[in-house]
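tool=predict chain=A
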Amino acid sequence: GWKRTNVFIPSEDDMVDSLISVVVPCRDEENQICKLIESLKKQTYQNFELILVNDHSEDATQSYIEAALPGFKNIRLVDAIGFGKKNALREGILQSRGDLIVTTDADCSHSNRWLQTIAAFQNKYPSDLVICPVRLSGKSSLFSNIQQLEFVSLVASGAGAAGAGMPVLCNGANLVFTKEIWRKSLADLHDEEQSGDDIFLLQSVKKQGGVIRFLKSETAFAVAESADSLKSFFKQRRRWTSKAPAYTDWQIIFTACVIFTISFLELILLCLSFFDSIYVILFLSVFAFKYLLDVFFMSSARAFFEQKRVCFNSLALSIVYPFYIVMVGASALIVKPRNWK
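tool=predict ok
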């Protein structure tokens, strides 16, 4: 699926001038919001509106946005009435004027040709939902490198699955969809769940037989900050995992079950290895087989995501991955996260 998806390079024939609505939910983002606004000011495609939805921020987020209003004609500030990220997105989309919606996060930055690439792709390949690439930036440390590789594995796997005709993953930090398909999906977005605005939309579009594509372009990236601590990393992943019981798409459920089962199997075999040497062989066989598959796949995607030392970082990630998956999966399903940040 990954190799089947061609790299998209916009041409003059693909240029359009349709209004795009960029909707960004914001909550306590005073340290990041100015960087987002500046990156969008520099877009080569200027026929867009930026809707920043302030979800009851308790810091200076609103003040920074208000200070940017006079110098940015395309920007609008919406004070959310309800609470939570899903509600903030809903209020922003309902107030949007464009037929094409782009969502991103307040801590993301983008290339100058981000919206131009999206507009050209949608013009050439009309889609109901377009999954766009996301990567993490961060300090040059082992924790940051492993975190970035793990995130790349998610995005690249999601892209490959979409290319194979069975999309199972997307990320609201860089997601494109038509307002029409969003309206048709409102009943499927599971407002009772704290997260999942992206996956539930994907699930609904699939159910409706909508067209879903991955935009494989270096100028279509959203770049987000990696977690600065193990605590914030686990908190984010628990929030992502907590929505799993609400999945209804069999491909998404099957994928989640396979990932959890293999990680759980590795831990079981590791424990049994202390009692019988045959389990040592079985554990090493499963570990090596999975590691080689991971390296093979990640090597094909490393250039696009600008990843280095794939073999070493994959080995480090493979060692901690079973513990991480089982711990996050079990804890998120037992105790539901209460906040979206």
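Residues 272 and 278 are 9 Å apart (CA to CA). The chain is about 50% helix and 15% strand.
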